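Wed. Picked up where I left off yesterday with JmjC domain-containing protein. The coffee machine is broken again, so keeping this brief.
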Amino acid sequence: MDNILIQVTGTKRVVLFSPSDVQYLYLNGDKSEVLDIDNPDVEKYPEFLKATRYECNLEPGDILFIPALWFHNVISLDFGVAVNVFWKHLGIYYQLNVPLDRALKTLDELPVEYKEFYARRLIARIESKVILRNPDTT
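Structure written out below (tokens, as returned):
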């Protein structure tokens, strides 16, 4: 969902990753397996270093728009209060848990940035299923 992050008091560091870098983020569901983004385990997550980071600090009164599909990591630098406002405008496109033929038809109807994101996720899911079933295949 789209998100507006409003910093009321205190300071936060926000790191964003574009949906175009989804193949480098080691997703498990909608979360990255890379927990320490500042010191990632490069043996376990070598592709993570290819992801482009967009970083900022939010101070009281700052407002940050985080578009749908942008992955983010937020760290409070001191005690603070923030408000998030989320909204969803994708309707059925937000969920791609449908049979392959319907998913492909749905992809054709999406705006380009959503199409690229969901196509990469779908490919990654299919590849993970194929690799799990055929571990001897390279």
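Quick read: The first helix runs from residue 100 to 109.
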